[in-house]
Amino acid sequence: MAVWRREFIVYTRERERAVSSVVTPLIWLLAFGAGLGASISVAGINYQEFIFPGILAMNVLFTSMFYGMYVVWDKKLDVLKEILIAPQPRWVAFTGKALGGLTICAFQVTILMIMGALFMSIPLTPLTFLFTLLGSLLFGLGAASLGLFIGAKLSSPDAFSLVMSFVMWPLFLTSGALYPIANLPAYLQVLVHVNPMAYGVDLMRGALLGMWTYGPLLDVGVLALFVAVFFYLGQKAFEQLNLG
Description:
single chain; 244 residues; mainly alpha; two-stranded antiparallel sheet; 2% strand; globular
């Protein structure tokens, strides 16, 4: 609880970070979605509505992965050392940080869904809001664990640009967030099928718009595996941290 509380306080005090995390996906929706949405549709659904769940998933992914970079700064500022020398297992600290990242994701996704319903005609009911939020939280826990795992392995903030190039953008661009998976050539569809974000996008799109590629059971199963793998690896990475 103490670690979770610290992460949330840090987020609320960094107002620029909070604002940019919401403004960036809105720019995608308004500039990209509205521009193409005026001329195309997908399965009878306006393009802006079609990509809305994908942009939610993008927000979760980028927030969670950048959240991992804060572990690098915590190591440099000795904040993480103070946390890890406490008389508790290191998995407790990892869990607190993962839940802190998950809370931030939930806060941002809620704001985006409300703004989408008010200003972009996104079909939102209490039930679809709840299921979409739950889908984003499931994907968000896996993404936060992945971000913390990578952050624990990095020794310099400068190395995080490599994560952007080789992890975050490939995950996003092969997730079906911006276009139907069926539109991709066969060799790229292989990448989509092993991309956990594709199942997160499908789960949120299905919950919000009723459009499914894999179905809710497969989506939840793959995301649960994604969470389990990186939650375990992240805990192990924290246990192996040598802070000097």
